[in-house]
Amino acid sequence: MNFPLSRRSFATAASLLPIACSAPGKTVLGGSKAPEAPVASNPLIRQRADTQIFRHDDGWYYAMGSVPEYDRLALRRSKTLAGLADAEERVLWRHEPSGPMSGFLWAPELHYVDGRWIVYFAAGPSGGGEDVFRIRTFAVVCDGRDPMTGNWSVLGEFKAPWDSFNLDSTIFTHRGVRYFSWAQREPGIETNSNVYIAPMKDALTLASAPARLTVPTLDWEIQGFKVNEGSAFLNRNGRLFMTYSASATDARYCMGLLSVDETANIMDPRAWTKAPEPVFTTCKETSVYGPGHNSFTVDEEGRDILVYHGRDYEAIEGDPLFNPDRHTRIQRIYYHANGVPDFGVPVGNGALPERFIPAVHRTVRMACDGTNLSVSDAPLAQTQFRSIEAGEGVVQLSPILKPDHCLVAAADGSVTLAPRATAEASHFRREAGPASGTVRFASVPFEGRALAYASDRLVLGDSYDASVAWLAD
Ligand code: AHR
To answer: Which atom of ligand 1 is the closest one to the Cα of 104?
Structure first.
């Protein structure tokens, strides 16, 4: 008897598998399963843009973002990423009746600075006209140890190098030094905003003059507005990466990438390398438009996660800034062989996808290019498949770039891509594979046979053969 496993419980149970199984249905699961984390789905949080998600050392995931009304700072938390979707949100602070913080509130971020919870955000006055875009960076501070229950009050205004439009601040620590990063319009440079970093002296004061890391000059950075904003930092593989967002906040909004050797002087702009092309853009195949203003976190298994917002339609009526449908989305981050993050494409709505690697040949992956299936070293987006529930322990496997299609098996052992009908030929039972830590997709109509790796092809093979063992990543 096969033990149908959910995707998350499979990963947990199989990792406890004490021995390789020799035949289908003989799965022997050892030990008790670790607590299951539910599989997250996109969009994760509806109508929250510019979202920061981080996992604090108290075990909670905290999330803050711009609300469509731009009138309040709201915080939610959950023990799982998926739980953020419907977690209770607490309003920490609302814009004031008048003055410099009575209008828009943008892109709040929660940070723990010198033993205090502080939320940094951009705010403007409510006077109407262009004055509402007199945006500056401010902070509120909590009087207690729990940001969800403490009292919040104004700490003050960030002391920026110039008295000009500034927003999208974040904090990161590198080699023991805490840095502030923000976007600002600099006198003498004809752009809406550029991105800066500087070490911090205290919560609102810089310890030195800023380093200007990027100015919007490339064609994909100046669509609609000349904008570089929304910086976020990730230290991996001996390098410090900075992502940022560019252009107008419509479907042309996209992400760029800078990187620097982690041992370099990161305050020297010449030490940084700027990618000439955007690293994350609108994807019509997955129906995600204007992805950007990202942050970074990890999932419950410690794997790097990209957090960003994006709409699931392209055409916007009116000013995109006042369109509410920039939803928070998340997806796995993978890495190129040279250690640089590979963000692929925005994966689209639905359960997070996975890659499937033959246990017997780990340099290739299940892939779909157009309607052509293969097992190859294909680009990331062609190797991401969504498991779509089709009954108890039964799934359809759908490539993210062809979300209305799925894998279909045939009696002759061939596997092809076809529209996602309800045909039983597209149903596979996801179960522990014939080797520890692997998964097997047993064909429902063709008993005793499962998805198998056969050189560069995907076929149906005997369920006890090593070729049906896949690593889910
Ligand atoms: O979402 C409001 C503002 O618009 C954000 O601060 C900025 O990143 C975006 O362009």
So the answer is: 2
Single-letter amino acid, residue 214: T
pLDDT the model gives residue 7:
64
State residue 317's pLDDT score: 92
193 pocket-lining for ligand 1 (C-beta < 6 Å): no
**So what's the pLDDT on residue 309?**
98
Please choose from 133, 243, 321 the residue to mutate so as to test ligand 1's pocket, defined by most ligand atoms within 8 A of CB. 321
Mutate to test the pocket of ligand 1, among 69, 167, 244, 250 (most ligand atoms within 8 A of CB): 167
Is it true that domain 7-351 has CATH number 2.115.10.20?
yes
Characterise 324 by phi-psi region: left (phi > 0), alpha (psi -120 to 50), beta (else).
alpha
CA dist 453 and 211 (Å) reads 51
Enter the DSSP assignment of 193: B
180: its two tokens = 């502030």
Q: Which of 89, 229, 250, 300 is catalytic?
A: 229
- Is the fold of 7-351 the same as that of 356-472? no
Tell me if the domain spanning 356-472 has CATH number 2.80.10.50.
yes
Domain boundaries, the chain: 7-351, 356-472
Which is catalytic among the residues 50, 109, 221, 299? 50
* Short-list 183, 99, 170, 161, CA closest to 139: 170
pLDDT in tens, 383-418: 999 999 998 889 999 999 999 999 999 999 999 999
Name the stretches of the chain with pLDDT < 70: 1-35, 422
What integer pLDDT is reported at residue 6 of this predicted model? 54
Cβ–ligand 1 contact at 109 (below 6 Å): no
